[in-house]
Design goal:
single chain, 176 residues, alpha+beta, six-stranded mixed beta sheet, two-stranded antiparallel ribbon, 16% helix
Amino acid sequence: MEKKNEFLIPVSGLALGSHSFQYEISDDFFVGMDYSEVQQGRVDVRLDIDRQETMLTLHFEFKGSVRVPCDRCADEFDLPIESGQDFFLKLGTENAEESDDVAVVSAELSEYDIRPLVYEYIILAIPMHRVHPEGECNPEVLAMLNAEAEAPAEEETGDDIDPRWAALKDIKLNDK
C-alpha cells in the first residue's frame, strides 16, 4: 500500500524557487480512492513547483496507462494517457477554493495533500470514448454486434399491434 504522506507537499517550509517531485502511481493508489472509476493503472507523475512569496504554481505531467472497459466490446484494456495540468495555491489568511484550479491556503500551512488532485487529473485524462485499438476488440462480441446490425427488421403485422392502438391505423390525416 502506498504511503499517504508521500503526497503531502511542503508549503511553508518550501524555499523560493523551483522544485521537482516524481511519483509512480500503481494499483494501490486507485484502490485507496473511494468509489474510484479506475481500479488499475501505472502512471508516472512529474510535479514541478514554482514557489513564490505569495503563491505556489504546481505543474503536473502524467504519462502511463489505466485499465478501463472498452465501450465497444466491454472487455477491459490498458488505455494510454498523457496530459499536463496546472494548479495554483495562493497563500492567504484562511482556506478557500477560488476555482477548479486555484485554492487559497493559510500561509502557515505546513503541508498540502495533492493526492485528490493527482486522482482528478488522471481521471480527466481519460477520454470520453474508450475503445480498443483497431483490431483488438473481442471478436465474439463484434460478431454478435455485426449480426444484430445486419439482421433485417421484422415486419409488423396487424396481429402485433396492441388492440388499444388498433383504431389509430384507420385515422386519415387531412392533406392541405
